[in-house]
Amino acid sequence: MSSLGKLAGRAGVLAAVCFLLAVLAPPASGDVAPLPNYTGSSVGQGVVTTFTIAPSIFTPLLQSGLVYSSATLSSQGQGSSHAIAAQIFPGSFALGALGCGVPAGWLQANYPEAGPCVSDPKPGNLFQINRSSFFTDLGAPQVDDVLNTVIDRSSLTLGTVRAYAHQTASYSNVETANYSIRSDPTMPPFLAAKDVTTTAIGYLKDGGLVNETTTTVKGLSLFNGLIDIGSVESHAVSGSDGTTGSADSSIQLSDVTVLINNTRYEATIDNKG
Q1: Average pLDDT score over residue span 29-46
Q2: Could you tell me which of 67, 62, 41, 65 has the C-alpha nearest to residue 52?
């Protein structure tokens, strides 16, 4: 298998932070009138990498994300939910091969609970991971090729993963520090950050379904210090009551500087560039 990987340094454009425990706790009886049929998902990612397998009619065929959170809520079976928090994610192409209790650095929560898949697992720890052979053992070596291409070019230090799933709410969160990625393993990082946090939430509220995601990056440095950004926060939220829908997104950048001829200048990044 040959894989073409172009690392795209998109620092989480999907996102929203909402740490209110009221959102995560089961609502009191009568507080929520669920929609008859619904499915909603929230996804937050740090850096997304896209790969194709040649020859292939699928483009892209595989995606991998560094620092990944997702939360899904569905009316299936009178209410179900699923949450994933992971420091690296091979994309939905490979998700069917996985169950709960997947390799370290991953955390999943399921409602209803079944076997090792519980609704409120203990938070997990992140660490610098070694090259993967997990999917090769499952008969899918191309997924390991994708993961290892990313692993060889990235690094991070200790962090945490959290996941929660309930009949009316799901939540996932990843926090990590000293995060970097390179286009070539021998080159300096083209993207480095002191802290990266991504959160995904789905919940029923006032008879409707709401999905939110937030990704926050602090101490961001691009192209080995050519551009420094104090913080980037991207947020997205959508909701529907089954009749009308709404969606909104935003991105905020602060303390942007650019290095020109060994002198650093303040700069602004907006929708014009």
Answers
A1: 70
A2: 62
Taking alpha carbons only, the member of 47, 58, 45 closest to residue 3 is 58
CA terminus-to-terminus distance, the chain: 38
In this prediction, residue 81 carries a pLDDT of 92
Report the length, in residues, of the chain: 273
Other beta carbons within 10 angstroms of residue 63's beta carbon come to 18
- Greatest alpha-carbon pair distance for the chain in Å reads 64
Q: Do residues 226 and 259 touch, judged by C-beta distance below 8 A?
A: yes
What pLDDT is recorded for position 143?
72
Residue 187 CA to its chain's centroid (Å): 25
Lowest mean pLDDT among 125-134, 171-180, 223-232, 252-261: 125-134
Task: Choose among 248, 167, 246: nearest CA to 202.
Answer: 167
Which two structure tokens, joined as six digits, stand for 127?
A: 């660490």
Question: And the tokens for 203?
Answer: 């919940």
